[in-house]
Amino acid sequence: MGLFDMFKSAAPKLNPRVALAAGLLYMMASDGQIGEEEIGQLQSVVGGDRALLEDGIKYIRAVSFDQYLQDAPAVLDDAQRLCLLVNACDSLLSDGTAAPQEQAMFGRLLAALGFSEERFTPYFQTIAVKNNRTVFGR
């Protein structure tokens, strides 16, 4: 309904930094819950850049994930795409498991950014080892 359009917040312009923050936020929210580990991962990636975090939140509230998948590849170079994927995967695995919704969403992101599972496998294996703290016992 057009009457309420004035209450919508406009999405910030998508650039590589907003694409990173938004991509991580989409991944974190995909299973309906955001864990402490995921928040910690996000903070380590965006650092103390509160404005970037706010832009990412505004973006995901205004733009569907499908639209993000169409728009993000155009603003990211190959190194930025890989960085986003590695950080998204790290976020998904930070709590020890990746829910089916998270896996499906990550698969869509992987494809949209032009990576096959085969090409991403070495990165995935490294991240899985990094996040497997069970090797140290309870």
What would you note in describing this structure?
- With 138 residues, the protein is mainly α.
- The termini are far apart.
- 67% of the residues lie in helices and 0% in strands.
- The mean pLDDT is 87.
Topology diagram in text:
Elements: H1 16-29, H2 36-46, H3 50-62, H4 65-75, H5 78-93, H6 100-112, H7 117-131
The rough form would be described as globular
Instruction: Quote the CATH topology.
Output: TerB-like
Averaged pLDDT: 87
Global structural class: mainly alpha
Number of domains: 1
CATH structural architecture: Orthogonal Bundle
Order of helices and strands: HHHHHHH
**Rg, Cα atoms, Å:** 15 Å
* Poorly predicted spans: none
From the N-terminal CA to the C-terminal CA, the straight-line distance is: 53 Å
The largest sheet is: none
- The total strand number stands at 0
Give the strand content: under 5%
* The CATH class: Mainly Alpha
Number of helical segments? Answer: 7
Helix content class: 55-70%
Give a brief rundown of this model.
By secondary structure, the chain is mainly α. It is built from seven helices and no strands. The model has no long low-confidence stretch (mean pLDDT 87).
Please supply descriptive tags for the structure shown above.
mainly alpha, TerB-like, 67% helix
